[in-house]
Design a protein that fits this description.
The chain contains four helices and twelve strands. The chain is globular. The strands form two sheets. Strands 4-3-6-1-8-10 form a six-stranded mixed sheet. The longest helix is centred in the N-terminal third of the chain and has 33 residues. It is of the alpha/beta class. The protein has two domains: about 35 residues; about 180 residues, no CATH class.
C-alpha cells in the first residue's frame, strides 16, 4: 500500500516538474516577443512559409514584413544588388526597429528615431533570401513606405535592379500611407497585403509592378493617386 502511495506521489512530482518547465518556456517565449524577437520558427524555414502564413504572422505581431531575394546582377551602377536601402517616412520620434534576417542564422538590427523621411542603408552578406521586419518598438508613431518621391522606391531607390529584389510585402498595424512611386518598378513583387491602417496611396505607387496581379484596397483608404 505504501509502495502504491509513493508511486502516485512520484507521478505527482513528475507532473509538477513538467508543469514548471512549461511555465518557464512560456515566460521565455513571451519575453522574446516583447523584446522584438517576433520569430516563432527557425530562420531556415522562413522562406518555405506560404503567403497565408506570412499574412497571419504580420497581423499577429503587428510588424511589417518584406521578403527580398538578393541576386548578383549586371547593368547600371552599382551592379551588386547586395547593397540595399530602405526608404520610409515616420510621423514622429518614436523608435522603429528594422531586423534583417537571412539564411545561416544571419541577423542584423537597425534602429531609427528620425521624424519624417528616413533611409536605412544596409549591405547583405551574400546572394540569397532575406526577411525584413519593421515595427515601432517605443512610442505610438506611425510610418509610411517610400518618401513621396516617384524616383525613390521602398527598397533600392530608383535602380530597377535593386527594386527588383522585393518579392512580397505585408503591412503592419502602424503603416498609414504609401508614398508616391513607393513600389515603382518592383518587377518581382508578386504579393502585397495592406493593413487596415493604410489611409493613403500615392501616385504611381505600383507603377510597372508587372508580376503583381491584384491588390486589395482597405476600406479606410481616403486618398488614392494615379
Amino acid at each position: 500500500m505504501s509502495y502504491q502511495k509513493n508511486k502516485i506521489k512520484g507521478k505527482g512530482g513528475l507532473i509538477s516538474a513538467i508543469s514548471i518547465v512549461l511555465v518557464i518556456l512560456l515566460v521565455v517565449g513571451a519575453l522574446g516577443w516583447l523584446s522584438g524577437g517576433f520569430k516563432d520558427w527557425s530562420v531556415k524555414d522562413w522562406f518555405k512559409k506560404a503567403e497565408t502564413d506570412w499574412a497571419a504572422y504580420s497581423k499577429k505581431t503587428g510588424c511589417s514584413v518584406l521578403l527580398i531575394t538578393a541576386t548578383k546582377t549586371t547593368g547600371d551602377s552599382p551592379a551588386d544588388a547586395l547593397d540595399q536601402i530602405f526608404y520610409g517616412n515616420k510621423s514622429d520620434t518614436s523608435t522603429m526597429k528594422i531586423l534583417v534576417s537571412g539564411e545561416n542564422e544571419y541577423e542584423k538590427t537597425y534602429t531609427t528615431s528620425v521624424s519624417g523621411n528616413f533611409n536605412i542603408p544596409f549591405t547583405l552578406p551574400k546572394i540569397g533570401n532575406y526577411v525584413i521586419e519593421l515595427w515601432i518598438s517605443s512610442g505610438t508613431g506611425t510610418y509610411g513606405f517610400g518618401v513621396g518621391d516617384k524616383d525613390t522606391t521602398v527598397i533600392g531607390g530608383d535602380s530597377v535592379k535593386k527594386s527588383s529584389v522585393l518579392t512580397e510585402c505585408f503591412f503592419g498595424k502602424n503603416v498609414t500611407g504609401i508614398g508616391e512611386g513607393a513600389f515603382r518598378q518592383c518587377r518581382n513583387l508578386k504579393n502585397i497585403v495592406l493593413s487596415d491602417s493604410v489611409a493613403s496611396i500615392g501616385n504611381y505607387a505600383f507603377y510597372e509592378c508587372n508580376n503583381l496581379s491584384s491588390i486589395a484596397i482597405p476600406k479606410g483608404v481616403e486618398n488614392i493617386g494615379n
